Amino acid sequence: MTTAEQPHSPEAAPYPGPAAEQAAAAQVKVWLCPNDALAPELASVLATHWLDEQEQETARQFLFERDRRQYRVAHTLVRRALALEAGLVEAELVIRRSQRGRPFLQPMPGGLPRGGAHLDFNLSHTGGYNLLGIVRRHRIGVDVERLDRNAQAIEAITATFAPEEQEWIARSAPGRSRGRRALRLWTLKEAYSKARGLGLGLPFDEFAFTLADDRGVTGFRPPADDQFTRWRFVELEPVPDVLAAVAISADDQQSPVLQLHHGFPWARTAPHRITLPDPVGTALP
To answer: Which residues fall within 8 angstroms of residue 249, CB to CB, at 6 or more apart?
Structure first.
């Protein structure tokens, strides 16, 4: 089948045994898909066949075609990747939203055809790129940002952070170095708040990260209401000048590897495997 043809539903697979199901439940999968991975005409066809009525209405409301295309690519990516994970047809996925607007896959009686009863996912997009994270047993949040922000935007972002984070940013040279520090923190904060299901409803000065100068979270002070307490955070620069962050609630049974896929999930090409860092945050009593 070529990408110009309408794709078929995921192939049927036998229900996995307990060991396979446990291994699948521990996996963390992330997809980075540029808009260019789908031709505009194909994205429109897939959206017509896969997206529900509310999603299609949202796509029609965009004033500019570039924004409409971004929405279509992002949401067909969600349905394709979830269909592969769940063992369902893309158009049959029922996606709901929480009271705060966080999307979730409606549970199915008896569980999913490919095992388990739960899939958590989170989507982010920025100028031409879409980032999707999927886990089974945990909560996940993702964010992706381009580095081409002007100084005024960086100042506005920095002003929302905790005092110790603002001091860390101020210690860097003005310009690109300072902007990179601010956007590293911003992507991590966005990913964490989205994993919590709070989005921008969580003030960014109520929690704080300590970062290595190059890459990596070395410390995390969670907000007082965080019931998970321990998290794994991954910083990525999957393509030049595009920063991404992944936040996953942590437990002792979690897989130590994140699978990073590039492009639109037409085929099951081998992902880039990234070792997850140790959890940070407040240990459970």
So the answer is: 138, 139, 140, 195, 228, 230, 231
Q: Using CA atoms, how far apart are residues 123 and 121, in angstroms rounded to an integer?
A: 7
**CB hemisphere CA count around 147 (13 angstroms):** 17
Report how far residue 158's alpha carbon sits from residue 186's, in angstroms, rounded to the nearest whole number: 8
Residues in Cβ contact with 215 at an 8 Å cutoff, skipping those fewer than 6 apart: 184, 235, 237
> In which element (H, E) is residue 217 found?
strand 217-221
What tokens does 189 get?
């904060």
Residues 143, 245: Cα–Cα separation, whole Å: 5
| pLDDT given for residue 269 in this prediction | 82
pTM: 0.89
Interval 177-200: pLDDT, tens: 999 999 999 999 999 999 999 877
Element (H, E) at 141: strand 140-146
- Report the distance separating Cα 70 and Cα 59, nearest Å: 9
Nearest CA among 270, 225, 230 for reference residue 254: 230
Output helix, strand, coil percentages for the chain, rounded to the nearest 5: 35, 25, 40
First CA to last CA across the chain, in angstroms? 54
Q: Which residues pair with 121 in a beta bridge?
A: 134
Which residues of the chain fall short of a pLDDT of 50? 1-22, 283-285
Burial class (CB in 10 A: 0-12, 13-18, 19+), 259: middle
